[in-house]
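Explain the record.
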Amino acid sequence: MITVENVAKHFGGIHAVDGVSLSIEKGSITGLIGPNGAGKSTLFNIIAGVFPPSSGRIYLDGEDVTALQPHELFHKGLLRTFQIAHEFSTLTVLENLMVVPGMQEGEQLRHSWFNFSRVKETEARIRDRARDVIEFLEIAHLENELAGNLSGGQKKLLELGRTMMVDAKIVFLDEVGAGVNRTLLNTIAKSIKRLNEERGYTFCLIEHDMDFIARLCDPVIVMAEGKLLTQGTIEEVKSNEEVIEAYLGTGRTQKRKAEA
């Protein structure tokens, strides 16, 4: 579904992403891990159109989308969330979901003035969809709560819900579990799994919680110092010496050799 070919991003003399090539298969839940500063979020931003690459190409279902902006990729079904949730804090949970679909009838002045019944029909349809999302995520008790009052984990669930308000093909989740308590983290994991299995969503997610990655992701891709280090199953990745060095330093490898 997504193909990244030799993508690089330089900020002055800093090579944040340095010649990365990878593929994300349709229907997969792919994990992207690596130490802080590995270039993971920068790579997400390049794929999602936030940053143009310094070099390289990106393809979505075989189409070159390298030069497209985030709103253009959004309409093609490529969505991205952020480490810090970006909710509309003074709107309710229901309203936050309802504003997501683009090109709504009420956004056109002529319909608002001369065809108000059409606007109301569209709004009712979107409200019904939003309530289906709320039920799916098991947050019906929060429907009329202001989004600004939600906990960090509830805001992450709301961000996931907003991806469900459009026909998403692939969703990039940036540290969806960061700062989330275990109960809500389990709800988020269950929702991602259900969306993948029941609705055919493809996911790629950055996460530092290895238990969360192990529960959901296959394959797992590892980055370090802007480069692709390795990829494979979570067990293959956890036993890879280069990965151990990237996370824990060369001393760990030397210690293991000495013990052997």
Notes: The first strand starts at residue 2 and ends at 11.
